Amino acid sequence: MVGTAYQTIGLGLASAVGAARAVEDGRTLVLASGDGGFLMGLSDLESLIGAAISAVVVIYNDAAYGAEIHQYGSQGLTEKPMLIPEVDFSGVARALGAESAIIRSLSDLSALQDWIDAGAKGTFVADCRITSSVRAPWLSEWMEASRAAKAAVAS
Ligand SMILES: Cc1ncc(C[n+]2csc(CCOP(=O)(O)OP(=O)(O)O)c2C)c(N)n1
Ligand SMILES: [Mg+2]
Q: Ligand 2 centre from 154 Cα, in Å?
């Protein structure tokens, strides 16, 4: 939750490099990141692959700065600057020495299961292709609380 603590995207990969050094033997480090934040720290993927004994990277690849779409696109702002091309993170990860798969359905997770069954060694990148059109319930709750707080300050 480094990004949440600092309200800054792009810190996940760099934080994972440090966490990979701290994690105890036999445990698997898990990094969860959006595609936009992951792109900001992309060069650190090579460092993570070098540092991690066992790591899983989950990328929520919605081809968008999704939070912006939900918060601002939903208010009518143009979404074009909020969109990102659908990046082949799986291909990048394999080029840098990780194991990886594109995940479009639950059955695609068999590649991750195979990696775990083989001993969970090295870094596995799950490039999860998800929709940007479904809003998480917690985000709707947060947006409503934010709207109510602004209204209370204004009145
Ligand atoms: C350095 C920085 N730039 C911009 C923002 C504003 N911001 C907050 S969430 C977000 C979108 C993040 O996109 P992504 O990492 O793909 O995650 P998603 O919301 O799509 O799950 C942006 C641009 C920020 N918090 N920090
Ligand atoms: Mg995204």
A: 32
Which residues line ligand 1 at a C-beta cut-off of 6 Å?
7-10, 34-37, 60, 62, 64-68
pLDDT tens per residue across span 13-39: 999 999 999 998 889 999 999 999 999
Give Rg (Cα) of the chain.
17
Question: Please, what are the domains in the chain?
Answer: 2-154 (3.40.50.970)
- Which of the listed residues 65, 86, 127 should we mutate to test ligand 1's pocket, taking the one with most ligand atoms within 8 A of CB? 65
Answer whether 0.90 is exceeded by the pTM: yes
Alpha carbons 32 and 50: distance in angstroms, whole number = 18
Beta bridge partners of 34: 60
